[in-house]
User: What shape does this take?
Amino acid sequence: MNRWSVLVDNLRSQLWPLPALALLLALLLGVGLPRFDAAMNDSMPPGLTAWLFSGGPEAARTVLSAVASSLITVTSLTFSLTVVTLQLASSQYSPRVLRTFAADPFVHVTLSLLLGTFVYSLTVLRTVRASLDDQDAFVPQVSVTVGFVLGVASVGMLVGFLAHLARQIRVESILRQVHADTEATMRHVYGDERDNDGIPQVPPTPGGRTVSLCAGSSGFLTAVEGQPLLGAALETGAVVVLADHPGDFLIAGTPVAVAWAAEGGELDESAVTRLVDALNGALRTDSERTAAQDPEFGLRQIIDIAVRALSPGVNDPTTAVHALSHAAALLCEAAHYRLGSRLLHDDAGRVRVVLPRPDFAAMLDLVLTQPRRYGSDDPYVLARMFTLLREVAWTTRSPEHHRAVSGQLARLTDAMHRHSFDERERARLQELEQSVRQALAGHWPVTSA
Assistant: This one.
């Protein structure tokens, strides 16, 4: 993903770009259409004139004034509802889902239409003239008609916005949107790197004295451009291994990568300087995590919702179960990709740059660690975590993935034994535990309801 893709991803989560563009277009339209009206004057086709505004200057001013004054009030209401929604999402679900709400295109289009119609109506209003001694009356019929149509469309958009907001604030809608965004990120980051492509991913080992390369700025690592690093590594005859992946927080002045001479020996000072410059140019940091190159961010959002639902103040295990279901689907999708570090090679096939990425074990640990800690005393939440392991175990045949599932199964079983359940609940949980082992052996078990 290049820097322009990262920029587009950042702009998507901002509320101002599309409304600002709409204001500019509305201003241009408000200046251009009255000139078109003046040029056409009385040469409008009769069939078209019948559909246009037919009132005088005072009526035109009344219509445009009513549209402008009402829409600025409606726009204020829309902004207020948006802010309240963001506050509710932050407190009820997770602060990290605010980016999902802010990137909602329906909100952007609504604000753009309302603000654009307001600016357009004011701009056209200045061109309406009454008949005086030194000037003729002028009513831009097309312009006023367009203002009327935009006003009606704005009312319809407001009704649609309210319905959309009521739907989007539901936790199921939030989970579905985060799920879709995370799937898109996986497809973009991993592309055609399927786990069964047969390409070995063996990172290199240092062949000489290593040099630490430090970060130039602090913040969340949002994107890494591999090609500039590869070019610098080839130019200096070095091997570069990054220590952090998108989603990690970097501290300026601390090592973020190591490098060594590909042919042995040591890297000279000029080579190290070149590598540091290339590294700082290849790393993108921001004050918040983004999904641009960070598939774990979507899983983090989903698990945050699950953990918040399990808190004593909320006490909503059903939402936690639903969140774990979405996490299970994403893990099953991730299992089909070749996870782990991305290796960049030179023309001779030697590894020159290693870009770390989370492996399957890390993703599975992210999904289960906190729900296991905070929800293992609830039999339904615990049952869903066992079921998640069974689904993942069935989906993948990778020995590495199965080892990760087995490790999580042992930890989940231990958590089950630390809590008190009645006889029926414990029997159900033990049945699910055995079903995971059967799925690891390649058999889909039939469990009781």
